[in-house]
């Protein structure tokens, strides 16, 4: 659980750290001027926006919000994608294009996985809202007047006030 919670906390900082790593990696590995423009104008903003989209999709799920932990599928997808972004920031010339394509594919996979998980959780709440399954359609164990009176007799401190509406005052007539 600690690992899943750690990933939950890491999602927002990753949106800043990963694009910054690409700029730092460019400086460390002397990637060149055109690469700098590509990173500055395309790669870093794409990773920033992609990370925010993934973060919002993951954190939109009710189970993630309740547990404050991502799913194991999220851990796998985020690990692969972030690993590829970090490898991309190393600017290894022979495999540069392969890493870039793998990072794009990993992003698309985690995007669709997050959407599928969100839809799966939302579908249950949508079904509960359909006619015949709402709270008004559930059987109730509403106490009868006799039950209320019996409880009032047992607890002498209880005062029961029965309010009856009159026609025209906007309340239901009993």
Molecular structure report:
With 174 residues, the protein is mostly helical. It has one domain. 70% of the residues lie in helices and 0% in strands. Helix 1 packs antiparallel against helix 2 and helix 1 runs parallel beside helix 4. The longest helix is centred in the middle third of the chain and has 34 residues. The radius of gyration is 28 Å and the shape is rod-shaped.
Briefly characterize the structure.
Keywords: Membrane, Transmembrane, Transmembrane helix. The chain is an all-alpha fold and 174 residues long. The protein has six helices and no strands.
**What is Rg?**
28 Å
Biggest sheet architecture:
none
Individual helix count: 6
Class inferred from helices and paired strands: mainly alpha
Number of domains: 1
First and last CA, distance: 53 Å
Approximate shape: rod-shaped
The ordered H/E elements are HHHHHH
DSSP helix fraction: 55-70%
Strand content: under 5%
Low-confidence stretches: none
Organism: Microbacterium protaetiae
Transmembrane segments: 7-29, 35-58, 70-89, 95-115
Keywords: Membrane, Transmembrane, Transmembrane helix
Protein name: MFS transporter permease
Task: Give a topology summary.
Blueprint: H1 2-28, H2 33-59, H3 62-67, H4 72-88, H5 96-129, H6 145-154
Helix pairs in contact: 1-2, 1-4, 2-5, 4-5
Transmembrane segments: 7-29, 35-58, 70-89, 95-115
Protein name: MFS transporter permease
Keywords: Membrane, Transmembrane, Transmembrane helix
């Amino acid at each position: 659980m600690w690992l899943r919670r750690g990933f939950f906390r890491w999602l927002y900082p990753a949106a800043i750290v990963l694009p910054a790593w690409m700029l730092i990696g460019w400086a460390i590995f002397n990637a060149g001027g055109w690469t700098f423009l590509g990173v500055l104008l395309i790669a870093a903003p794409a990773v920033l926006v992609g990370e925010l989209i993934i973060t919002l999709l993951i954190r939109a799920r009710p189970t993630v919000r309740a547990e404050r932990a991502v799913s194991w599928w999220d851990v796998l997808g985020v690990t692969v994608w972030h690993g590829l972004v970090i490898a991309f920031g190393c600017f290894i010339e022979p495999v540069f294009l392969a890493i870039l394509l793998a990072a794009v594919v990993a992003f698309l996979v985690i995007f669709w996985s997050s959407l599928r998980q969100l839809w799966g959780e939302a579908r249950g709440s949508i079904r509960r809202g359909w006619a015949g399954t709402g709270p008004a359609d559930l059987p109730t164990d509403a106490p009868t007047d006799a039950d209320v009176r019996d409880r009032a007799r047992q607890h002498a401190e209880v005062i029961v006030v029965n309010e009856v509406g009159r026609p025209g005052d906007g309340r239901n007539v009993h």
